[in-house]
Amino acid sequence: MSTKVSFDILESTIRKALMNAGLNEDKATLCARIHTESSADGVESHGANRVPRFVDYVKKKVGLIQKENLSLFVVRVWQKIMTVI
């Protein structure tokens, strides 16, 4: 049995989880948007299913992206997603 959750509720919940893990509001908002859009687009490997692992990485400070590299990272992720479609 599956449960449907609205885009806004999922995004808000993910953002709160990321902020609780230690990300600032701007980074949490961006990452929540990316994870939520991935789920909405059917890319489950980088959507809501990935959030628990991502929260663990944030808590352990594993692979945190510097602000100046964040937009490049987002572009690269988007390019990888587009090659799958």
Residue-averaged pLDDT: 81
Helix fraction by DSSP (H/I, runs of at least 4): 55-70%
Assembly state of the chains shown: single chain
Proportion in β-strands = under 5%
Largest sheet: none
Question: Count the strands?
Answer: 0
Count of DSSP H/I helices: 4
- Taking Cα atoms only, what radius of gyration do you get, to the nearest Å? 13 Å
Overall morphology = globular
Order of helices and strands: HHHH
Terminal-residue CA separation: 27 Å
What's this entry about, in short?
By secondary structure, the chain is mostly helical. The protein has 4 helices and no strands.
Task: Describe the fold and architecture.
It is a single chain. The protein has 85 residues and is mainly alpha-helical. Helix content is 69%, strand content 0%. The chain is built from four helices and no strands. Helix 1 crosses helix 2 and helix 1 (7-21) runs parallel beside helix 3. The longest helix has 18 residues, at 67-84. The chain is globular and about 30 Å long.
Task: For the structure shown, list the relevant keywords.
85 residues, mainly alpha, 4 helices, 69% helix, globular
Secondary-structure map:
Elements: H1 7-21, H2 25-40, H3 51-60, H4 67-84
